[in-house]
Amino acid sequence: MIRPILIHPDPRLKKLCDPVTEFDADLAVLAKDMLETMYDAPGIGLAAPQIGVMKRILVMDCVKEGEPRPMVLVNPKITWASEDLGVYEEGCLSIPDQYAEVKRPAEVRVEWVDETGKPQEEQFSGLWATCVQHEIDHLDGKLFIDYLGPLKRQMITRKMEKLKRERARQAQA
Questions:
Q1: CB atoms near residue 136 (< 10 Å)
Q2: For the chain, how are helix, strand and coil distributed in percent, rounded to 5?
Q3: Domain ranges of the chain
Q4: For the chain, what is the total number of helices (H) and then of strands (E)?
Q5: Which residues are within 8 A (CB) of 95 and not within 5 positions of it... i.e. 6 or more apart?
Q6: Is the pTM higher than 0.85?
Q7: How confident is the model at residue 128 (pLDDT cuts 50, 70, 90)?
Q8: CATH homologous superfamily, domain 11-172
């Protein structure tokens, strides 16, 4: 089921998420819904708070061409980050049509459990590294615009407030 994506500013996008403790059918449904929502958007990553679920779960798939690689990361934790930095122009499904260059570690090692509770670990680089860091930030109540200067951040926030007002008017019409 495709779920609605919250648009910034929304207080839920700035909250710290709770760890997942139940690995049950509800979690499997949530993971499936998140992947469907991400692909439909379309995006390469989605964190649970973006659909109003305050749990530490994210999904991602950074494959541009070829066989998709959907990933579900529950309670992810960065255990190592390279000193080398990479710069990517980032966007966010909760901040539509807004992009900015963000500097992050070029490589990270992440530990997590999958939706069945099985421990996983992988080292990510390039777009995958940027994506996983961006999505983990969501779980910690941080948005990519928090890396920008105050003027650019305020400008984007005002655009999102306007977008939300326009969408609300359209929904009433």
A1: 21
A2: 40, 30, 30
A3: 11-172
A4: 3, 7
A5: 7, 8, 143, 144, 145, 156, 160
A6: yes
A7: very high
A8: Peptide deformylase (3.90.45.10)
